[in-house]
Design brief:
By secondary structure, the chain is α/β, with parallel strands linked by helices. It has helices spanning 3-15, 27-40, 60-69, 91-106, 126-138, 148-151, 155-165, 187-197, 214-220, 243-254, and strands at residues 18-23, 44-48, 76-79, 111-114, 142-145, 169-172, 202-206, 227-231, 236-237, 240-241. An eight-stranded parallel beta barrel has the order 1-2-3-4-5-6-7-8, surrounded by six helices. Strands 9-10 form a two-stranded antiparallel sheet. Strand 6, helix 8 and strand 7 (202-206) form a beta-alpha-beta unit. Helix 4 (91-106) runs parallel beside helix 5.
Length: 255
């Protein structure tokens, strides 16, 4: 690797956005966790409820609290997932998601995080996704596809579909949904996804991102790629999101 590439990579690492996932359990938890992410320097947060169920749609009140705590930083993303389990949502569930998108915007969200797969083969469900994307766009919201992407049988095909639909970002660990492993284990697939994305969509890397591996992950990413890092428990101390833990993650990338 020549010096030009090394310098470019170093510059890219310094700018690599960090997104903190927050479990909205109650008012005080949301307020404290979001304030910690803000003070620690996180560029974005993903607000969910029920993280023990891999994240569901949070209460509108908690979105409003998060908006106040994240101040004027334009990175409040809200999970829109009506239930636990698979990502094959019914027509009624998609209608619920449409309503939640509108509520998220009313409460101050900058983006939503969602995904719908077909019940017969787990491929991206075109029509529901088009409807949800249109609703988000009508409210000026960015759209991230969550790890439903990792549940698709062909992630190359799924990525192309998301790009064609106009999705802004895709969250992935590189590891198939339901299988053990962190983003470090999924690096080969992650790099394949990043290469295929070719800057047409941002690839958000999540799944076990923590202080022990975040520098390794950051260093492995192509210098000019549209990527960011997503952490949940890796931004916590004793199960609580803290300013110190968030700042430590960001500092580990910059070193």
């Amino acid at each position: 690797m020549n010096h030009q590439n090394v310098s470019s990579r170093a510059g890219r690492q310094n700018e690599l956005p960090v997104e903190i996932c927050i479990d909205a359990r109650d008012d005080s938890t949301v307020r404290a966790a979001v304030a910690a992410a803000y003070s620690g320097g996180a560029q974005r947060i993903e607000l969910c409820s029920a993280m023990h169920l891999d994240g569901l749609t949070p209460d509108p009140r908690h979105i409003s609290i998060a908006r106040d705590a994240f101040r004027d930083r334009p990175g409040l993303l809200v999970m829109v997932r009506p239930r636990a389990g698979d990502f094959c949502f019914s027509r009624d569930e998609v209608e619920q998601m449409m309503t939640r998108i509108e509520l998220a915007r009313q409460c101050g969200a900058d983006g939503v995080v969602l995904g719908v797969l077909r019940p017969d083969d787990n491929r991206v469900a075109h029509e529901p996704m088009r409807r949800l994307l249109a609703a988000a766009r009508n409210h000026g919201l960015a759209v991230t596809c969550h790890r439903a992407f990792d549940a698709a049988p062909d992630r190359d095909e799924a990525l192309d579909t998301l790009i064609d639909l106009g999705v802004d970002r895709v969250l992935t660990s590189g590891v198939p949904w339901g299988q053990a492993g962190s983003a470090v284990d999924g690096l080969p697939q992650l790099l394949r996804t990043i290469e295929r994305a070719a800057d047409r969509i941002e690839v958000v890397i999540g799944g076990g991102v923590n202080l022990r591996n975040v520098a390794t992950l950051a260093a492995a990413l192509p210098a000019t790629a549209r990527t960011s890092l997503h952490a949940y428990s890796g931004a916590q101390q004793g199960g609580v999101t803290t300013t110190e833990a968030v700042r430590a993650l960001i500092d580990a990338i910059r070193q």
